[in-house]
Amino acid sequence: MTQLMQGDITVQGRQRIFYWRDIRSDRAVIRQNFIDREYATGMLIRDADITARYRSILEAGLTPVIVDCGANIGTSVLHFLEAYPRAHVVAIEPAPDNFALLSRNTEGLNVTLINKGVSSCAGEMTLVDTGEPFAYRLT
User: Per UniProt, what is one Pfam family of this protein (predicted)?
Assistant: First the structure.
C-alpha cells in the first residue's frame, strides 16, 4: 500500500493541506507545478495576451473558465487558481486513484471535477493502467 503524504500549502491566501502519494509520478507533478512552475505564463510570448484576456472577461462581469484535461492530483489546478484567482477551473481526470486525491486537494475551491477521460474519438473507452508512471491509456 502506498503511503499517503501530506503537507501545508497556501492557495489564494489560505493555508490548506495538500495530499500526495510517495510515488515518482506524484513527486514529479509536485515539482513540475510547485517548484519549477512549468505552467506559469510569465515566460511565454503570449503572457500579456493571456493576462489581458483574463482581465477583459472579468471586466465584462463574467467568470474566466480554465479546463484542465488530465488534472492528476490537482497541482496544476491549484497553480491556475493561484495565478487566476477569480477563474473557475474544470478539472478532468480519468484515473480513480488520482481523482480521489484531486477531490481532496481541491475541496471547497472554485473547481468542477469530472471523473472522465478526454479523447478525439466519440464513445465509451476503457481506462488501462499500464503500471508505469504517467502511463494511463484510454482504449
Answer: Methyltransf_21
CA nearest to 106, candidates 53, 66, 57: 66
CA-to-CA distance for 21 and 108, rounded, in angstroms?
A: 21
Rounded-to-integer distance, Cα 55 and Cα 104, Å: 29
Share of the chain above pLDDT 70, in %: 95
**Domains of the chain by residue range:** 4-138
Integer Rg of the chain from CA: 16
Contact 91, 77 (CB under 8 A): yes
CA distances from 108 to 22, 28, 42, 102, 103 (A): 24, 25, 27, 12, 9
Say which residue the cell 479523447 belongs to.
119
